């Protein structure tokens, strides 16, 4: 998840929706904001917080995490901080990807 001066309530809801299902996930949040004011919120919710302290862009921020996680995870979810979903969504997506390796 990439942040830039994001609303703390939205960030909280997005992180909690990722953690609400039965699927074990590792969530990394990259903050492109000039200040790290969301560090405590993100860390307290159990996600990894990285600050760029400048706006390097949405794609570049995701690419930083992709390079770090290539050998650690089969999948990478590109998620905006204003998106939230039910507990069944990530397990359903995972099952679909496992059943369809050609995708």
Q: Keywords for this structure?
A:
103 residues, mainly alpha, three-stranded parallel β-sheet
Question: How would you characterize this protein structure?
Answer:
- This protein is mainly α and 103 residues long.
- 40% of the residues lie in helices and 10% in strands.
- It is built from 4 helices and 3 strands.
- It has a 3-stranded parallel sheet.
- Strand 1, helix 1 and strand 2 form a beta-alpha-beta unit.
- The chain starts with a strand and ends with a helix.
In summary, what is this structure?
The protein is mainly α and 103 residues long. It has helices at residues 8-19, 39-44, 58-69, 89-99; strands at 2-3, 28-31, 48-51. It has 4 helices and 3 strands.
Please give the radius of gyration in angstroms.
Answer: 14 Å
Number of strands: 3
The side-by-side strand order for the widest beta sheet comes to 1-2-3
Average pLDDT level? 94
Q: Helical proportion?
A: 25-40%
Order of helices and strands: EHEHEHH
Low-pLDDT stretches are none
Q: Assess the beta-strand content as a share of residues.
A: 5-15%
**Mind describing the biggest β-sheet?**
3 strands, parallel
- Going by helix content, strand content and strand pairing, the class is mainly alpha
Number of helices: 4
For the termini, the CA-CA separation is 22 Å
Q: What's the overall geometry?
A: globular
């Amino acid at each position: 998840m990439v942040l830039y001066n994001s609303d703390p309530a939205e960030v909280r809801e997005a992180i909690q929706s990722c953690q609400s299902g039965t699927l074990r996930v590792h969530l990394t949040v990259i903050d492109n904001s000039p200040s790290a004011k969301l560090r405590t919120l993100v860390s307290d919710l159990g996600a990894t917080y990285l600050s760029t302290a400048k706006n390097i862009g949405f794609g570049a921020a995701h690419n930083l995490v992709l390079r770090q996680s290539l050998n650690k995870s089969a999948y990478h979810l590109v998620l905006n901080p204003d998106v939230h979903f039910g507990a069944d969504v990530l397990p359903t997506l995972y099952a679909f990807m496992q059943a369809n390796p050609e995708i």
